[in-house]
Every structure is written in C-alpha cells, then in structure tokens.
Specification:
Layout: H1 7-12, H2 16-28, H3 35-50, H4 59-77, H5 81-99, H6 108-132, H7 136-165, H8 167-173, H9 176-187, H10 193-211, H11 243-274, H12 284-308, H13 320-351, H14 355-380, H15 384-402, H16 407-417, H17 426-429, H18 437-440, H19 444-457, H20 467-487, H21 495-507
Helix pairs in contact: 2-3, 2-10, 3-4, 4-5, 5-6, 5-10, 6-7, 6-10, 7-8, 11-13, 12-13, 12-14, 13-14, 14-15, 20-21
C-alpha cells in the first residue's frame, strides 16, 4: 500500500503526472542543459515530498536525492554531458528506490524502475479510480477500461511499426494507418511533435515516480540474506572433494597464481614504473589492449577469491595459510591496478588527455575499492550481499564525483598547455564543447611553435587536421557560439557557457 497521505493531498496526487507532462516541455523543449535542469529537479522533489511519496527512511533514498541535487547544480554550473548523465542515472535510481523502499543494493534501482514501467500505469489507474471514482461498480468499470486501454495503446504502437516496415502488413490494415496519420497531423498543427513527445515522457516519468511499485514475483540480487556468513554444517554425502580437499586445491592454485603474478608485477615495476622508454609509436598495445586485459584479469581474480570463500571454507580451522595467500593475491592485484594507472599515465604524458584516459582512472578507483572490499569480506567473513551493497554505493558516488567536473575545459587547458610536449590531436580537440572554446585558441606565434614541435616528435601528425584548418574551425565555432548564446533562452543558461562567452568577447579583435 502507498504511503498514507492526508485526504486533501491524496485528492491531488493523481493529477501530478499531468503537472510533469506540462513542466517537461516547458523547461526542456529546445533547451540546453542549465538552469532548467535545476528548476525541474526542484519541482520533481517538491511534488514527491508534497505527495507523500518521498521519505528518507532508507539511506539510499537520501543518497540518490543528494545525487540529483548535486548533478542538477552541476548542470547549472557546467551544462556538461557527464552532469546530465549523472542526473538521469540518479533520477532512475531514485524512482526504483521509491518503488521498493526496502532496497539495500543501490544498483537494483535500475531493475525496479524497469519493472515500474509495467506496474505504475495500473497502480495509477487504480489510485485515480479510488480517488475520483463513484461507487464500487463505477470504480470497477473504470479499472477494467484501464486494463483494456493500455494493451490497445501498445497494440496500436506495434501495428504502426509493422505497417511502416512491411507494405504487405500495411495493405492488410487498409486505411487504418491513414486515419492515424491524419489524427496526428491535426494534433501537431498547434503542438510541436518534439514538445508532445517530451510531455508524454514527463507524464510517464511522473507516473513511475509517484506510482511505481515492485512486485513480489522477482528476486533481486543481494536483497535476501545477511551481511555476515553463517556456518552451515552438511553431512558427508560420499563426495570425492570435501572441505579439506577443496582447501588443498585452493592453496596450490593461489601459490601458483601468486608466483605468476609476482613475476608479472616485478616486470611491470621494472619496465613500466622505472625504465619505461617511448619508441615514438602509438602505444596502442601498451595501453589500449594491455590496460583492458589487465583490468579483466583483476576482475577474474576477484571472482576466483569469491568462489573459494563463498561458504564453509571461511570456517575451516586450517585455512590460515589459504587466507594469507588470498590476501597476498588481492594485494598483488591492487599493485597491478596501480601498474595499469602508470601505463595510463605514460599514455597521458605522451598523448595528452582524452575522455577514455580519464575514465580509465575512474574505473581503476572502482576496481581498487572492489579489491579492498573483497579483502574485508575474506577477513571478516562477509557475504556476497556485503560486496553488492558497499560497491554499488561506491560506484554511484564515483559517478557523481565524475559529473562534478567540466572535463572539456580541463582537457582543453591541459592539452593546449602541453601542445609542444605531447601529441595534440587536432581532430579531437575541435569537437570539445563551447565552454572549452576560449582555451582552444592560440596566437600565431604559439601555432608556429606547436606545429614545429608536433612535426618533429610525431611523423604521423600530418595525417590529422592541420593547424591552419584547426584555427579556421575554432574561429568559426566561436562566431556561431557568440551569436547563439546571445539568442539563448534564459532556461538554458549555465555558468560555464557564460564564462566562455565573456572570455570570447574579450578575445575578439
């Protein structure tokens, strides 16, 4: 049952999705991310609070609400894609937590939100009928009509898709699609199709946030059980591999794996940390292929420890040596993660910053946090639920932190400052967003120095955009941005673009 609401408040809750349907196109249609996202988030949280849907009994709800607030503020300050992405992710997780307030694994919010896509419309119709319906018979008829309308609406969508895809199916349906087309043409004479679509999306979002509810037919991963392992005694069933044999196999395996990884780490320390020498190549195998293979090996290493310490082996009285080997194995994997970071550093040193190089560092932080929690799991006899609960929160927090920075500006400043020392990828740099434009511009003397340095260090630099073309594109984008910003609606205002606009005005001849 939904949270109890005062009678007056309960009366207006079914109308709230219509408010969402109005707010979304008003704030988002033909607008960039900026002040509008902050206003929209304030309205959403206010409506959820006023409707009695938003409570802070679950700490994860508090965390995701904080995530929506932080990311919406970052949209105002940066207007960047990472900030918008984190806001959307936070809103999806929040809707999942509102649908299932008992959740302990944050990432399960994605699953409960998906399930709410199907449960929320029926709950909305049921709630609306109970509030505005007449007698029991009227409510029952309205509920049955709702059960019919939704399948029919979904059927119309698929019939439209099939008719557009197959001329034979279109002939079979006769003039049906013609009538549908005429209906939408008359509807969109006064309403923009884009605004209508955004309004429908807002209505659906409101229904999910306010009426989504997790059904009891699905078992979500990590939601059952306890955080601490319990010893379960089992009678011997004649199996050839008992607990003692499993411990011996695991011990031998970890001895061999530790030896192999120790060799790998020593080689990496000598060749990557201390004596790395760049040969002038792309470093593709060294970083691109090597980095992801090493990360994959770390993830498999974590899975291996989790497999052997999944049950009673944690309570085996002769497992002290095995635990030490597991700790050494995980510690070596942490060192391996740092070696991957050093590889990425060298790549950054010679080829400057890029989005993927930044995200490699972020992913390594997640991996190291995961390895540390696995060590704690082995030491304190924790369950898989402990790992899911802790790591889902850590991953989300790292994403929120990543969304707090304007990476385009950071990349532009860093790469331009080192354009005469590292590879300057002109094709990539001209694609950075408008907030980075003031930092992409160079004077003629600087262009000459950079172009000479690039030609001397990188023979393949001629395969990329020339600096003359680079300058032409940047200057053209500058003029377009200044003209566009002067006409921009106040809802699309964000601090990063405003600063860029002010700097570009001062740089104009």
């Amino acid at each position: 049952r939904y949270l109890a609401k005062p009678p007056l408040m309960k009366k207006y809750v079914p109308l709230m999705p219509m408010v969402f349907a109005i707010l979304f196109p008003l704030l988002l249609n033909n607008q960039r991310a900026g002040l509008n996202v902050l206003l929209l988030n304030t309205a959403i949280l206010s409506l959820l609070w006023w409707g009695g849907r938003l409570t802070f009994r679950n700490s994860l709800v508090t965390l995701t609400v904080a995530g929506t607030i932080v990311s919406s503020v970052m949209c105002l300050l940066n207007g960047s894609v990472p900030a918008v992405s984190v806001y959307v992710i936070s809103l999806i997780l929040l809707s999942g937590l509102l649908a299932a307030p008992y959740l302990s694994v944050l990432l399960n919010g994605f699953l409960t939100t998906f399930i709410s896509l199907f449960t929320a419309p029926f709950n909305y119709l049921k709630n609306t009928g109970s509030v505005y319906g007449g007698g029991a018979k009227t409510r029952r008829v309205g509920r049955y009509l709702g059960y019919i309308i939704i399948p029919v609406f979904v059927l119309l969508i698929f019939v439209s898709l099939y008719s557009a895809a197959s001329p034979y199916f279109k002939d079979l349906t006769g003039d049906f699609m013609l009538y549908v087309e005429r209906f939408f043409n008359s509807l969109f004479r006064n309403i923009s199709p884009q605004a209508f679509a955004i309004g429908v999306g807002g209505f659906i979002t409101g229904v999910i946030l306010l009426f989504g509810k997790m059904t009891g037919i699905f078992d979500l991963p990590g939601e059952t059980g306890v955080m601490d392992l319990q010893r379960i005694k089992k009678w011997y069933k004649g199996s050839m591999i008992g607990l003692r044999a499993e411990a011996r196999i695991a011990t031998l395996l970890f001895v061999l794996l530790n030896a192999a990884l120790a060799v790998m780490n020593v080689l990496d320390f000598w060749h990557v940390w201390i004596n790395f020498r760049w040969d002038g190549g792309f470093l593709k195998q060294f970083v691109h292929e090597g980095t992801w293979l090493l990360i994959l090996s770390i993830v498999i290493s974590m899975a291996l420890v989790l497999w052997y310490f999944r049950g009673n082996l944690n309570f085996y009285r002769r497992n002290k040596g095995l635990k030490i080997l597991a700790r050494v194995w995980l510690a070596q994997n942490i060192f391996l993660a740092f070696s991957v970071a050093v590889r990425n550093f060298w790549y950054l040193h010679y080829f400057n910053l890029a989005y993927k190089r930044i995200w490699v560092f972020a992913f390594l932080i997640m991996v190291i946090a995961g390895l540390i929690t696995v060590i704690i799991k082995v030491e304190q006899r924790k369950t898989l639920k402990y790992l899911l609960v802790r790591n889902s929160v850590y991953v989300y927090i790292i994403f929120v932190i990543m969304g707090m920075f304007n990476w385009d500006v950071i990349i532009a400043k860093f790469n331009v400052s080192r354009a005469d020392k590292a590879f300057y990828h002109t094709d990539f740099m001209v694609t950075l967003n408008e907030s980075a434009l003031p930092y992409l511009m160079m004077d003629k003397q600087r262009y000459q120095v950079v172009e000479k340095a690039q030609a001397g260090m990188f023979t393949y630099s001629k395969n990329y955009l020339s600096f003359a073309d680079y300058d032409t594109i940047v200057m053209h984008r500058k003029e377009l941005f200044i003209n566009e910003f002067q006409k921009r609606h106040w809802l699309s205002w964000n601090a990063a673009d405003w600063r860029s606009y002010r700097k570009l005005l001062h740089l104009m001849p």
